[in-house]
Amino acid sequence: MSESLMRPGRGGARLTALLAVTSAVTAANVYLSQPLLAEAAASLRVPVGTLGALPTATQVGFAAGVALLVPAGDAVDRRRLITVLTAASAVALAACALAPTAFWLLVAGLLLGVVSPVPQLVAPLAVALAGGERIGRTVGTVQAGLLVGVLASRTYAGALASVAGWRAVFWCSCAATVLLASALRRHLPAAPPAAPLRYRTALASVPKIFAADPRVRRIVVAGALVGVSFGAFWTPLTFLLVQHYRFGSATVGLFGLVAAAGAVVSPLAGRLTDRLGGRAGQTVMIGAVAAGWAVLLPGGTGLGWLIAGTVLLDVGTWSNQVGCQQALFALRPAMRSRLNACYFTLRFLGIAAGSFAGTLAWQAAGWFGVAGTGAAACGAALLVTHLPDRDPAAGRSRTGGIRAARRVAGPVAGGGVPR
């Protein structure tokens, strides 16, 4: 990659914008099916409950793609990998549009998820194209694109399906994804790995990096705990809105619009993280999540409190994600894709665990139990964030942990940067 492309500047800003659009389009593809389930079920002559498995299949495929494909970003040319996966997403969308039965739609949805972790590859590439500077700002911009895509996908899919049918949604998204793949192939520069590395080695090194470097463990575990807090909120929120406030599904869906607040704030959170540094930035963001839970506590008695707390919690959660990625990417430039895979794998597991825990808390103690569960996870995240960078099990210092991480990551490439 040429030095001019690596320096932040006008060209770098344009590439960052292209990568933000890439995050928006590819993230939107994962959530397209949610508003289409009833119409698709009627068309394929199956119960709606049968197609209820479609979003789950896509999410399971997406998690598998994060774990299995994102580490490849440190082993192959990222431009080629991102372009190929984007093109593969277009093929999977076409398969969804052509699916003759519910079974084949589920299979196509699973495959769509597997090839869709492009945003998790885009963020490390955007940082590299920005010359490794202003990491938080760059990650925040790319994440804003992702959030806009997630937010817009449901509205766009529902509106288009009402006019042209559910298959038209997949066809239109397929066409947009083909255009995106063409733009990426034309405008993205080559982005080879820092040093020769086999995919199998890159994949196997992810858990070893997590085990060897206490800084990675601290950031990733804290991020996963914020994910637990986030998951503990959104599932019980539906129960609260339906059972306590007597809202219908359309009104419940409007609460998803708070993601727009996260999209607006993400670039600002990135700039703040760059200014404060990793640990201090994460502390501020987790503090915003804690403030959100404090405001949400009386949410069962006042809708205004519920809305304000939802915005605070959502903004704090997404801002914390920017902070975690900023801190991880600053650790090892040549390992950013593997660090991102490690972070998002535990992040998704945390959200899933939080959703389960929040449901149990609702059943046991109602909204106060939910708020207590979320606040406890948030407090644990804050505690982990301020743990010293030591490895208690092996009794190693921070330096020892770093040396161990270098051993599992592979030999040193040029300039003393581990692979």
UniProtKB/TrEMBL annotation:
Q: Where located?
A: Cell membrane
Q: Does the keyword Membrane apply?
A: yes
UniProt key word Translocase: no
| Keyword vocabulary terms for this entry | Membrane, Transmembrane, Transmembrane helix
- Residues annotated as domain Major facilitator superfamily (MFS) profile: 15-419
The membrane spanning regions, by residue number, are 51-70, 82-104, 110-131, 138-157, 219-241, 247-269, 276-296, 341-361, 367-388
Question: What Pfam families does this protein map onto?
Answer: MFS_1
The main location class comes to: membrane
Q: Which SUPFAM superfamilies match?
A: MFS general substrate transporter
InterPro entries for the chain: MFS, MFS_dom, MFS_trans_sf
Q: Which PROSITE patterns match?
A: MFS
Q: Which Gene3D superfamilies match?
A: MFS general substrate transporter like domains
Membrane topology (UniProt) = Multi-pass membrane protein
What domain of life does the UniProt record list for this protein's source? Bacteria
Instruction: Read off the PANTHER family from this record.
Output: MAJOR FACILITATOR SUPERFAMILY (MFS) PROFILE DOMAIN-CONTAINING PROTEIN (PTHR42910:SF1), TRANSPORTER SCO4007-RELATED (PTHR42910)
Q: What is this protein called?
A: MFS family arabinose efflux permease
Q: Which organism is it from?
A: Kitasatospora paracochleata
